[in-house]
Design goal:
alpha/beta, Rossmann fold, about 50% helix, six-stranded mixed beta sheet
Amino acid sequence: MRSVAWLERLAPHAARNLDLRLGDLIASEPDRFSSTALRVGPLMTSFARQRIDAPAMAALLEVARERRVEDAITALFEGETVNRSEQRPALHMALRSDLGSGATARAAHAQAREAQQAMARLVDALRASEVTDLVNVGIGGSDLGPRLVLEALRELDPGRFRVHFLSTVDGHAASQLLRQLDPARTAAVLVSKTFTTQETLLNAQVLRRWMGTTDRLYAVTAHGDRALAHGIAPERLLPMWDWVGGRYSLWSSVGLVVAAALGMESFERLLAGAAQMDAHVRHAPIHSNLAVRHALVAVWNRNALGYDSQAVLPYDVRLARLPAYLQQLVMESLGKSVTQDGEQVPCATGPVIWGGAGTDVQHSFFQSLHQGTDAVPMDFIGVVRPDHGEPLQHRVLLANLLAQAEAFANGAPGVDAQRAYPGNRPSTMILLDAITPESLGALIALYEHSVFVQAAIWNINPFDQWGVELGKRLAADLAAAFDAPDTVSDPVTRALLGELRRKPPA
């Protein structure tokens, strides 16, 4: 890779911080917690245990200025063409806030409000019906977002509907699900921006045959004509738009099952929490901007310290789905090796995102995090106030959260080498006052904006996913090739098709 001027300027700071012990760094800065903590609404975030001293953070802020991060944020909110490979704006913020003054942004917000009103009418109609079960049929952002929200906010669910998710094209998923349901009391929401998504359309066919009607099929799409051609009535159709990417679409009509299950008021509170984070990111200066700070830490860990993965560790089972959600958001957005200008990226980009919910994961992969050869930066997420009546359990849960973060940072000596803990593993601590629609919305929006800032620094497009599209095209071609394997040019694929066509003994 060719040299990168801003990264070269970070090199001496990285060398100095790699030689520092986190415990010593914290001890040398008596106000380190307060000076590295930022609060936005219901979220408090501490970067005290990241391997970044004050001069290094000052250098990172200078990188943000040099890479014109503030201008990039303005362009995003104003509806400029930030998705340059597809020549589109990215206006998912307009689904939840009205912070852009440009005509494009304001028009998008007006469209979003109109769609929300239509969604509210459908929610009322569903609640007044005899439907007991809702099936959300979608994949990627059309699945992960609603799943995350419903699992996180399950305490708000009045139980009017049972909500199920069907994403994979694996027929076992559909058959296992449908055995549990009554076709006369089931409605399905087909979610596909293009309404060409293979998995979604195949599952839609299965549901349509099983239900024997299209009367309880709903669709969310940017191509309503295609949904109408599949027999979905206009009154059961909700819009999407090309200025909303799938992994940013939770805030749109994609949230129909969320609004139906939890109520439109809860969905609007989710939007309000995200809007609060939007307002902060839009107006806060970069030195006190939480999303900018989170992004700079990620860039520092990836480029200056050389960490190639990041763990997300929520200490609340309601957020167990968050690592999977962030896998798509971060890795689909930042998994790019070509700049916006069509050149090879001269440095490493997005990390591998993985994780799980504590305390379970302490008994699975934490051993590797504590004593393995590769250090992994971590985002710990805790919740101050629980929604259950077991204070002792919550106290022990939080004690584990604090203990793990401390142990990773400080390590501990042992009676021998095998019992020694090296420490010096960096982490960020995010504390939610409670899990509410507002705090969840703010948390998700924080990660969205952090991803955008990282992309701005690397000059990559966080809104396209051409690698995903390649896989889709090849899969469509190979589905047809099962009946004509000789048409396949790749010799290994052709041989594997032969194996798959061979009928194994029953």
